[in-house]
User: Fold these one by one.
Assistant:
Number 1:
Amino acid sequence: MRRGASRLGSTTRRGLHRSRSGGSTREPRAADRGRGDPAEPVLVVDDDPMCCRLIATALELEGFGVKWTTDPLDALELLRTGRYAVLVSDVNMPHMLGTSLAAQVRKMHPSVPILLVTAFGDRQICAEAQALGAALVAKPVQMDVLAATVRELLQERVEGRAAL
């Protein structure tokens, strides 16, 4: 990424692009309804731009609204100012670990489901994810597993609200 370029972005079915707002421009198709709520998009955070875009694109192709960023500090700002259905975050990132980001999200938005993605899933990471109530998926991510896990987290969130 060139210096000074925006780290926020979104994906569309037609291709990848960047936008200053990080918002998605794709209108949901009829087949997409019920899969994800574009009003509360999934927030994807990964310091590797290619991986971040890949995850975002895979989720959009499954019908989810998606915002993404390659910087966990940007993600915190997005989380302070917006609503998100699910947080999907890499664990190993500069400036802030995904587990630290998840802990801060828990304080700001306790009901937001969190999915941590890591290539280094040792016992400590597994224990931290469990303590945070976060799901954990290993890299390389199988996109069907990723989408199914996000759907599952959303369903658990809906069922949790219904129980209240």
Note: The domain at 8-163 is CATH 3.40.50.2300 (Rossmann fold).
Number 2:
Amino acid sequence: MRRIGATFMLMVLAGGAAVAADFPARKPGLWEMKMSFESSRAPSQSIQQCIDPATDLMMQSSASNIGSQNCSKRDVVKSGDTTTIDSVCSVAGRNATSHAVVTGSFDSAYTMTVRSKSDIGPPINMTIAAKWLGPCQADQKPGDLILPGGIKMNLRDMANRIGVPGVPSVPGAPPR
């Protein structure tokens, strides 16, 4: 689980940083994200994420801010419902390159394949299949991330508590 978390964060910082700014907002509600890794012993993981327009924007702003400051290359090609992004970024002082292809609709389902290489480990080949499940459950609030095993954490609350650079404070969240 720890390797999956580190891998996911590397992808958010390296590949996701270049990706986030180039897509429309996702439909508000509960999204399921199934992540699978090629050439890895890591098992596939499935997470759910409850979003509203503010939390979706927060996540895109955070990734875009990180990427815009640390990426020397960011080529984006859009064709129909497919977007291809190639980037070269610096993450924690290490170089990382990524090639991402995203297809589908941000109202119902999309697939993102990312191939990433960095100075700090083996290449990462990952596919994320995302689909909209419907409205968030009654016990969920925007920003909730539901991890395997039912572990729930709220990204909006965490960002507000620690003051993530580039992420605007979200009204109604706990103070920083």
Note: Confidence is low (pLDDT under 50) at residues 1-19, 170-176.
